Predict the structure.
Amino acid sequence: MKESDKISVLVCVHSRDHEHDVLLQRALESLVRQTYPNFETIVVLDECWEDTKGLVKNYASVLDIRIFERTHKQGLAAAKNFGIARCTGDWIAYLDADDQWMDCKLEVQRNYLLEHDGIDLCFTESWDLFDGVMRPNCFMVGQYQTHVSICKALPNENVLCHGSALIRKSALDGLGGYSTSKALLGREDWHMWQRAVEAGFTLWKIPERLYVYSLGTGVPR
């Protein structure tokens, strides 16, 4: 990463009601609190109900935000590919609409990539959030940190948290985005990491828990 590189944050949303909008608001608030503020936010409204767009528009004064709408959802992979095509950054980060970032997440990742050249896909460890309680996820900090250890584990287990990813856009473009095959439903990210390894891209995980993954709040995509 270079100092001048731009970061895009992609948020894909399928909100059906006020309850899901509350989760989206929580996610966007975690972007507002980021200690590194120089990023654009691309929000894809993937067949959302009528109130969601207004909620997102309320953040235009505090985030560099652009909104795109899809009236018929075709799965999360399709929504992500749609959003990636509209990102102008050199790097793309993800935030699921029901999850959150720790306040320093983007700054820590950016600083790490500035100091460690040659990484194409950068991840962090995460927390699990259930009923308002945060607990460490099933992986120990540093357990799968290096490219070699990640590559050894990936054929048998997805050891990478998708929402924590910060990925070089040229790598995503080179891979052609996410597969929209129905046979990979729910495993599109795992498939992407395996393809990235096969294509010669470098994966790394920062040994800090910087992503908050919400359990029991997802919606069918």
